[in-house]
Design brief:
The protein is an all-alpha fold and 239 residues long. The protein has one domain. The chain is 74% helix and 0% strand. It contains ten helices and no strands.
């Protein structure tokens, strides 16, 4: 495997050993928090410690950063591989500079979102973070599988990342809203996000099977992917 092939493994590797364990922890703490709230209402007390709510929020904040970070990592690999292979730095340096600035702006917006407390600032930085993800995802080099958007690793991943950004932006509102409206929104959207993460596990595994190694690409990309046929290799020469 070449260096580029090893770099391509960073995105799925980090997802396996860091992001998905975080998802399991967040779901576990969310379930315990819900059970404690229900037990407190019906029985007046609960054996589940109150710290589970705080742990759910703290690890959830980590999860948002991890999901957005791994999405940016996957986009960066595809985009910069295209920039290097097509020599965009020399052909169109303005485009390359724009892409670098977009990555910096998106990361900066996420950092400021973590620090923001006022509603308008949280809305602004969440919007900027989401916009950065979408704009970067539209760049050349990103494999989107638009004809099968409902089963696309890219579209599912961007949707999950946007939901995580939105969840981070409304954390303050959940605890201030006595009507629990924001809490219900949070629960519903994150149930959807959980389904999207399951889809990411399936589509990511599928895409790893479909992506050839760098030295295999010249032959594999000669294949007819619609009819699922490849050119016959030349017979070995007789020496």
């Amino acid at each position: 495997m070449a260096i580029s092939d090893w770099l391509g493994l960073l995105h799925p590797a980090i997802a396996v050993f860091f992001v998905f364990p975080l998802i399991g922890m967040v779901v576990n703490f969310a379930w315990q928090t819900r059970q404690r709230r229900l037990q407190t209402v019906t029985e007046g007390k609960s054996k589940i410690p109150p710290v589970v709510g705080r742990d759910h929020v703290n690890i959830g904040r980590w999860l948002t950063g991890a999901v957005v970070g791994i999405a940016l990592l996957g986009l960066a690999y595809a985009i910069f591989e295209h920039i290097i292979s097509d020599q965009i730095w020399s052909k169109n340096p303005a485009q390359a500079i724009f892409i670098v600035l977009m990555f910096a702006a998106t990361i900066g917006s996420l950092v400021f979102l973590y620090q923001a407390r006022q509603v308008h600032w949280r809305a602004i930085f969440a919007t900027l973070t989401g916009t950065g993800l979408v704009v970067l995802g539209c760049q050349d080099g990103v494999f989107r599988r638009t004809n099968e958007w409902y089963w696309s690793h890219y579209y599912i991943g961007i949707a999950a990342a946007l939901l995580m950004v939105f969840s981070l932006a409304i954390v303050e509102d959940i605890y201030k809203d006595r009507s629990n409206r924001w809490r219900y929104v949070h629960v519903i959207l994150n149930c959807v996000a959980l389904l999207l993460f399951m889809g990411q596990g399936i589509t990511g595994t599928r895409d790893l099977l479909e992506i050839p190694l760098s030295w295999q690409k010249p032959f594999v990309y000669q294949c007819d992917f619609v009819n699922k046929t490849c050119p016959q290799p030349a017979p070995p020469s007789k020496s």
